[in-house]
Write a structure and sequence with these properties.
Residues 21-228 form the Luciferase-like domain. One of its GO terms (molecular function) is oxidoreductase activity, acting on paired donors, with incorporation or reduction of molecular oxygen. Keywords: Oxidoreductase. With 300 residues, the chain is α/β, with parallel strands linked by helices. It has a single domain (14-299), classed as Alpha-Beta Barrel (TIM Barrel). It has helices at 28-37, 54-63, 82-95, 109-114, 122-137, 173-182, 194-208, 229-240, 254-267, 282-299, and strands spanning 14-19, 42-45, 69-76, 100-105, 142-145, 150-154, 166-169, 185-188, 216-224, 249-251, 271-275. An 8-stranded parallel barrel has the order 1-2-3-4-7-8-9-11, surrounded by 9 helices. Helix 7 runs parallel beside helix 9 (254-267) and helix 9 crosses helix 10.
Length: 300
């Protein structure tokens, strides 16, 4: 039986686009400026091996925009010492208050092995990391001696106020429940169908238990437009290795895209981040989503 997350779409969903790291870093500034000017709510950056750094890319995007929220989805926790991550996040959050969203996650395990940082229990590491990172960003003095995270009287001199909520990337049930328990939100990968998103939301709620606080669900959504939009979407689905018959993307005109995207809002997303193909000119894509798709979604 399908468990329904909601029966109505959020009043004003947030709308973003992915700046894929296959696009050169020197184009981030122009893409962020375009996103800012065209009314896009958010621009999301990936920290994939071995492309662009998430924190440095976010700094570029934030410094070339005035109202745009910039998300990093996500920082792989085996790569970054939690105290250093807290320092970097706090710096951006203070310099650009209210405009930063940070996600953390297990990291792609093959990449983690490739750089000598794969751990035997990613779940334990993520639990320790989320616990300590959120405490550090709240300005607390943290002593923690865990399996992977070891801190002794560590406290930020410049904690952000307010502290940004940390999101967690999650796919499997255990990580989804952990995100519901400890994170301010969950980043859902592209290639997730509405039914899969409903199931994910139920695991998140199970992790929250009786905790009534809000929990953001940011969902990447494969999206193509233009004269060959349908073919392009099928090609993208194939490149990711997804089932070609699965309901994992939207395509077509702005009206068709906005109409189809409602299914992910009904399934639980409150932030939709449209994900282009790697070769798509990013400024054109950002402008399309910001000026044509986002207004339709906001009108519901």
């Amino acid at each position: 039986m399908t468990t329904h997350w909601r029966t109505t779409i959020p009043a004003v969903p947030r709308v973003g686009a992915v700046y894929r790291p296959q696009t050169a870093p020197e184009l981030i500034a122009a893409a962020a400026a375009t996103a800012d000017a065209t009314g896009l709510d958010e621009l999301w950056l990936w920290e994939d091996c071995f492309l662009a750094g998430g924190i440095s890319a976010a700094a570029v995007a934030l410094s070339h925009s005035s109202r745009l929220t910039v998300g990093v989805g996500v920082l792989p926790v085996p790569v970054r010492n939690v105290a250093l991550a807290a320092m970097e996040i706090a710096t951006l959050a203070r310099a650009f208050p209210g405009r930063l969203r940070i996600g953390v996650g297990h990291g792609v395990q093959d990449w983690m092995a490739q750089i000598g940082e794969r751990v035997s229990s990613p779940m334990t590491l993520l639990r320790e990391y989320l616990t300590c990172l959120t405490a550090l960003l709240r300005g607390e003095r943290v002593t923690f001696h865990g399996r992977y995270v070891d801190l002794d009287q560590v406290q930020l001199d410049w904690p952000p106020d307010p502290a940004p909520g940390i999101l967690a990337a999650a796919v499997g049930p255990k990580t989804l429940r952990l995100s519901g328990e400890l994170a301010a939100g969950t980043v859902i990968t592209g290639g997730t169908s509405p039914d899969q998103l409903r199931a994910a939301a139920s695991h998140i709620r199970a992790g929250q238990g009786s905790d009534a606080r809000g929990h953001a669900i940011v969902t990447y959504l494969l999206c193509t437009t233009g004269p060959d939009a349908r073919r392009d979407l099928l090609d993208e689905i194939g490149e990711w290795g997804f089932d070609p018959g699965a309901d994992v993307g939207v395509w077509g005109t702005a009206e068709e895209i906005a109409g189809a995207a409602q299914r992910w809002l009904l399934a639980g997303a409150d932030t939709l981040v449209f994900q282009p193909r790697a070769a798509v000119p990013i400024e054109e894509y950002v402008e399309f989503v910001g000026t044509q798709v986002a207004p339709l979604l906001r009108r519901g």
